[in-house]
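Project outcomes to date are best conveyed with an example. Our students and postdoctoral researchers have been running inverse folding experiments weekly, and each run begins with a structure described purely in tokens. The record below, which covers 131 residues, was selected by the lab manager from last quarter's runs and is presented without edits.
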């Protein structure tokens, strides 16, 4: 069977009410509306959806969208990527130059480790008997 609370809730939504707008000086009825809670709920929901839709359309189809953080034109995004690549390559070049200068400073100050840069080659000894 149906729940009595559910039945009473639907009944409350369908109860009819009258909204009267009256002139305060003459007490004449200017406008009369017959409303239910359901019609008020549907009306307010429709107005909300329409306003949200209009706001989204205004932002999407006008230049206002360029003021949204993170949104930009395709050209600006491409230029940003090119600048990021250039910045990365410049940082790498600076790092290599710093390493080179540190090596030169070590050599000039004499603080180089006793390490040879070449691999020793084992040369055969000259035997006088082979000549």
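After processing, the design step wrote out the following sequence:
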């Amino acid at each position: 069977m149906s729940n009595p609370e559910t039945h009473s809730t639907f009944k409350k939504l369908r109860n009819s009410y009258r909204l009267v707008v009256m002139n305060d000086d003459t007490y004449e009825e200017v406008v009369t509306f017959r409303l239910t809670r359901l019609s008020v709920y549907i009306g307010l929901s429709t107005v909300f959806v329409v306003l949200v839709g209009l706001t989204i359309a205004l932002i999407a189809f006008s230049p206002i969208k360029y003021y949204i953080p993170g949104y930009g034109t395709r050209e600006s995004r491409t230029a940003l990527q090119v600048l990021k690549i250039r910045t990365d390559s410049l940082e790498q070049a600076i790092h290599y130059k710093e390493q080179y200068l540190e090596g030169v400073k070590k050599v000039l100050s004499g603080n180089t480790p006793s390490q040879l840069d070449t691999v020793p080659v084992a040369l055969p000894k000259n035997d006088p008997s082979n000549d």
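The beta strands are 16-22, 29-36. The chain has two domains: 1-67, 73-109. The training component of this project remains on track.
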